Amino acid sequence: MNMKTNILNKIINTILFFILSFLLSACSGNNNSPSDTPTTGVIEIAVDESFSPVIEAEVSVFEGIYKEASIIPKYLPETEAFKLLLNDSVRMIVVSRDLNTQEKKYFADKNFFPKTIKIASDGIAFIVNKDNPDTIFTTQMINGIFLGKYKYWNEIDSKRKKEEIKVVFDNPNSGTVHFAIDSICFGNNFSPQVSAVATNKAVIEYVKNNPHSIGIIGGSWISDRNDSTCLSFLKTIKVASIARDSVIDTQNSFAPYQAYVALHQYPYVRNIYIILSEPRSGLASGLTSFITSDRGQRIVLKSGIVPATQPLRIIKVRDDL
CA angle, corner 173, sides to 211 and 151, nearest 5? Predict the structure, then answer.
């Protein structure tokens, strides 16, 4: 009886083993099989919040074309976007810089090599209150304000009163802040008069309510004249022009608009990249292909920033006509 029982138990255990192996194999197969394709599925992507206007437009059109695709953008500071990419929480981010040496090594150690694709360029916009008489600055002035050399408005405009200049960014971990440290302050620390709020929209609200402030935001927030939100913002603030020369002149100062960015006349310009870590061609790859396509680049063009590949037609209007 005991021998029969032992044989039966072995048979049962063998059957259970094969059943369990089959189930594990099936589960493993499901994990390895694509749950999304270039035009179907659901994914999250991480986007530096300063690029939200143009990415919202791209996603809206993409989902309108591909009804079975659902893109969930997470708008957050650039540093957080990179963390999500490194943790494999997202397979696509939209940011203002490429992977650095340490980040590339991290992926290379895993025998993995993400792709970096340039999709556009935008100008960092400096905005002031609608009642502020100063709307033109030199690059020297901007550098001096950020480093604390100029703390009051009368130090850059003798006609002004001694009113403290307050500078506000979107977020201390944003790509805009990183750009300012590298390209405006040249690696030096900000003055204590420089602070951060939370988002680009919050910067606009702050400047609207604080007459002596300067705000720094992404160019797409003030460039799309067909966007009703952008138009409403422009009614409450002014966009400053910047001159590379040490002397202010309306002829040598430029605002961060499309033509001036494309012609390299505006001094504070950054690139916008997609970094793609997808191991196969899934929905993130499909969205990237769409954004870099002719139609996707025309959406970038319409948003008021400079597309990476779409030709930009610039018309010069003669003043003597």
Answer: 35
In 10 A of CB 26, how many CB atoms? 10
Residues 270, 261 contacting (CB under 8 angstroms): no
Write the DSSP symbol of residue 50: G
pLDDT of 28 > 60? The answer is no
What Rg do the C-alpha atoms of the chain give, in angstroms? 26
CATH fold of 41-122+270-307, please? D-Maltodextrin-Binding Protein; domain 2 (3.40.190)
Give the Cβ contact number of residue 55 at 10 Å.
Answer: 26
Locate all alpha helices (DSSP H) within the chain, ordered by sequence: 2-32, 52-65, 78-86, 101-109, 139-147, 175-183, 200-209, 220-223, 228-234, 258-262, 283-292, 294-302
Give the 3-state secondary structure of residue 87: coil
CA distance 186 to 168: 18
Cα of first residue to Cα of last residue in the chain, in angstroms, is: 111
- Domain locations in the chain? 41-122+270-307, 125-267
Class level of CATH domain 125-267: alpha beta
Distances from the Cα of 165 to the Cα of 195, 196, 238, 318, angstroms: 11, 14, 16, 37
pLDDT one-digit tens code per residue, 200-224 = 999 999 999 999 999 999 998 987 6
| Residue of 105, 108, 80, 112 lying closest to 94 (CA atoms) | 80
Residue 65, class by beta-carbon neighbours within 10 Å (0-12 exposed, 13-18 middle, 19+ buried)?
Answer: exposed
Rounded distance between C-alpha atoms, residue 290 and residue 59, angstroms: 9
150-199 pLDDT tens trace: 999 999 999 999 999 999 999 999 999 999 999 999 999 999 999 999 99
Query: What b-and-e string marks burial along 230-266, b requiring 16 or more CB atoms within 10 Å of the CB?
Result: beebbeebbbbbbbeeeebeeeebbbbbbbbbbeebb
Q: What are phi and psi of 306, to 5 degrees?
A: -100, 120
